Amino acid sequence: MASSKKKRQSHVNSDSQISNSIANIFTGSQPDRTGAEGHFVEGSIIRLVMKNFLTYDYSVVHPGPNLNMIVGANGTGKSSIVCAICLSLAGKTAILGRGDKVGLYVKRGCHKGFIEIELYKSGGNVVINREIHVENNQSLWMLNGRHCNQKAVEEEVKALQIQVGNLCQFLPQEKVGEFAKMSKIELLEATEKSVGPPEMYAYHCELKNFRNRERELENVVKEKTSFLEKTKQRNERNKHDVNRYYEKKRHLDVIELLEKKKPWVEYETTRKELEGAKKERDEAKKQLSALKQAQAPMLRKIQLIENQLKPTDAQIKDKTAAIKEASLKCKQKQDQLDRKHKEIDDIKQTQRLKQMEEEDHQKRISNTRRTIDDLKAELAKIGDQPDVTPQINAINVELRQIREERAKIEGEKADLRREKDNIYAESIMLETKLTNMNNLMNAKELKLRARHRDTHTALQWLRQNRQLFGGHVHEPMMLVINVRDHRFAKFVETHISFHDLRAFVFQRKDDMEMFMTEVRDKMNLKVNSISAPEESCSERLPSRKIESLRRFGFFTYLREMFDAPDEVMSYLCHQYKVHDVPVGNDQTKAMIKTVIEEPYLKVLYTTEERYTLKRSHYSNKISTSNSAVNPSQYLTITVDAEEKRQLEQQMKTCELKLREIDERLKALQAEAVALDRRDNELLAEKKHLSEVKGKKRQLEQKISTKQDSLKQMEQSVIDLQKIEEETKEKIAAVNSQKVTIVAAFIAQMKLRAKLTMEKVYLALETVGLMAEKTKLENDCREGASELKATDQRCSRLEHRKVQLIEQCKGLMKRAKSICRMQHDESLTEELRKAFSELPDTLDEIDAMLNEERSRAECFTGLSESVVDEYNRREQEIKHMEKELEDKSNALNSYRQNISEAKERWLYPLKQLVEQINVKFSDFFRSMQCAGEVDLHSENEEEYDKYGIRIRVKFHSSTQLHELTAYHQSGGERSVSTMLYLMALQELNRCPFRVVDEINQGMDPVNERRVFDIVVRTACKETTSQYFFITPKLLQNLQYAEEMTVLCVHNGCQMLPPNQWDEKAFIKRCLQRKAKA
């Protein structure tokens, strides 16, 4: 048995001590450490030294080789031993779930801490030293007395098969709940690493890599096979196109030869045609010369007559021009006469219009007189009538009253409209504020949905089925908690766990049970629910008024930072003591050493940190832990519930006022319509009376107007006699002008007749000469026609000869160009031979060309690239076939490797799981429960999906259910976790296991059963070292000789380590027991 104690501290920090004792102290036997190391497994912990580490000033722990029971009250430093083991073995701080910086594990007030661990190893133990510096969060490492880096320590730890990151081997207090949250795959990997052969996990990883590579190769082979098949099919289709291409090429070669020969045949044909044209042209020239000699005498006579006709033609032209001029002057005089006739007609027309105007004037005078007589008769009929003026005045008074009433109504309507507009604007503003608040609530709901979809699904179900519940049911806390200032959200969110933030709060337990049955059991949703305390705690008073703490910088309690429904606040006060958690500022941080000495403070907050204070029940010493306050993620969105309620009430008030105003406006509109109707009736009556009163006056005015008009018309009479005399004078003047024009017209007519006779004489003389000329021309017309035709023929033949010469030159040049010959080069023998096998006439060549072209055109859509593509693809097919063969061989090789690796891994794994299952089932059976462990996989070939499934049953009325973080209670999960670890314990591959306070939450019956199993299993000689940390033990438990009990005490009366006498302590214990 080994013992150690902490150094004595000042009165501020109480001392602590660890004492080791064997269970047989209580049975009366003496400890025996002779050959103790012979029972240690390689890698077991022989010694652990802590200096300035968490709650310890200095302490040395000597655990036993089997079960080590570490017992002590809360806050004495049990979990500090677990932290020391983890950090001394190069474990990460995240494994412990406490502070994220290693400097936080140094005792408060010290600049550095020290831990040392000695591990058993045959041939020489391994000693690891770690010195932790607070200032820079750095560590200095030593391995077996030599300085080294952390990597060397990690490799040494790995060689001893120690895995502090494996929950199956190392389960600290803060990670107990995470074991049940491990997936089947994670549990399998942790089990392989913990109890499987060293190569098992490597085989598993190798299998997963092989399977991934196999999938890749399968996909590659499949893709290449598919691509090769498509390529072959495509090339097979192209093969027909290649054959057609070569057939088309043969036709094109024949066409090329025909096109080469055709210009030579055209040249020869044109050359022969040129020779014939030359002969024909020479004969035509001889015939033309003979005809010209025969026509010469008659042509001379015709020329003489033509010379005589020229002067006569000139005189005829002069006479024609003079006649034309005389005719023009005659026409001008005729036009002048026509204008004078029209002028006389206009004068007569003007006279007729004046006569008609006078007749119409007389008719109007007569009509006006008749109208005056009629109006006078009507005026006489009217006579005397009563005066309607009093009636009109009475109507005017009533109309003024109606207008005043209408003005009042319109004023009231305008006031109501203005009031309505103001209220409507206010309602729009209120609606906008409510919408903004609802949008903030929606944003919080979206965050919940993103973080935990099951809770959001359950929330939707709750909103649709609220009528099923008898009491109040509140949505998840994060939706109903409203932080008054977003700066305080981080404190509230740090203080309340996320599991509770997403929990539904029920006023009644039966409602909660019904809700969980629906959403958890039927809908298979992972949700949390809470039943509020039966007696409300929301109004609990804090242990001290905040005014007494203001000198330390505290300004409020956590409860005052947020609003929540009564049931939610009651639960938070009961569970989290939010009414008694003060929040301070930077001043609090500066005075923290003084603050933590204040009584009644258990949890407090500064600006950036949370402090948890624990006071020892034995020494009254205070131990503290602190952690950073993280920024808020969910509660920064704040909605003032009271303001929202007031806004909703104001909205209802506005809607009521708007309805009242609309009803009043309808009533006023009805009154206005009635007044308009009466106003129209009075106006119609007034109009009738006004017409009666003004009719006599209107008649008198009309008579007077008509009489004035009659006087004016009688004064403006037209003098017809005077107008007739003026008309006669104008006509006489126009006739005098007409006489002068007629005289000039007759003179021009005589001149034109004289010139016409002279022209006729000259024309007769011309006709005689023309007759003689016509006779001579008729005599020589036949010869001249033949001469002309011969001359034209000669011209055509000459032109044809020139064309044929140029055509022959062009054809020769074109023929040599097509055959790619030089200017002075002749046809090759090869071409002559090829031409000899082709037709010799143009018609035959054209016919053959058309036939060959038609055949070639049948092969459409073909090009030389088709052949190139075909040949290239043939080479690709050969290359792909070779590559596919290589990949297929590689795939077969991988499948063979997988088969071998699977055989190496799966069979031992099944045996291992079966061994675990046998132990696990036995343990559960001994507790009158049922449990199974099996290897689970949906597809045997998916090696990354294999996992270990734990199924348990704690009640005879239920079925086996898979162990999850949600289905079983906390105690049931703890029992299952503990028994699984014990099932692993006997397989004994890892050097030691650590389980910290796993029995918390178990009922006494299960705790006793589990303890018996732990003692019975961990104390076997075949098992490895086991650390079981617990703050309490039940009475009358069964202990074993092989177990070691490490009692952790603290207090100001503890002895220093150098004064601790283990033998004297045992002797006194035995003496007290004997006296008892």
UniProtKB/TrEMBL annotation:
Spans through the membrane: none
InterPro entries according to UniProt: P-loop_NTPase, RecF/RecN/SMC_N
Cytoplasm in keyword set: no
One of the record's GO cellular component terms: Smc5-Smc6 complex
GO molecular function: ATP binding; single-stranded DNA binding
Coiled coil: 267-426, 644-730, 863-904
Matching Gene3D superfamilies: P-loop containing nucleotide triphosphate hydrolases
Stretch forming the signal peptide: none
Entry superkingdom: Eukaryota
Record localization: Chromosome, Telomere; Nucleus
Keyword entries, A-Z: ATP-binding, Chromosome, Coiled coil, Nucleotide-binding, Nucleus, Telomere
Gene Ontology biological process terms, A to Z: double-strand break repair via homologous recombination
RecF/RecN/SMC N-terminal domain span: 45-1033
Subunit structure: Forms a heterodimer with smc6. Component of the SMC5-SMC6 complex which consists at least of smc5, smc6, nsmce2, nsmce1 and nsmce4a.
PANTHER family attached to this UniProt entry: STRUCTURAL MAINTENANCE OF CHROMOSOMES PROTEIN 5 (PTHR45916:SF1)
Similarity section: Belongs to the SMC family. SMC5 subfamily.
Functional note: Core component of the SMC5-SMC6 complex, a complex involved in repair of DNA double-strand breaks by homologous recombination. The complex may promote sister chromatid homologous recombination by recruiting the SMC1-SMC3 cohesin complex to double-strand breaks. The complex is required for telomere maintenance via recombination and mediates sumoylation of shelterin complex (telosome) components. Required for sister chromatid cohesion during prometaphase and mitotic progression; the function seems to be independent of SMC6.
The name this protein goes by in its record: Structural maintenance of chromosomes protein 5
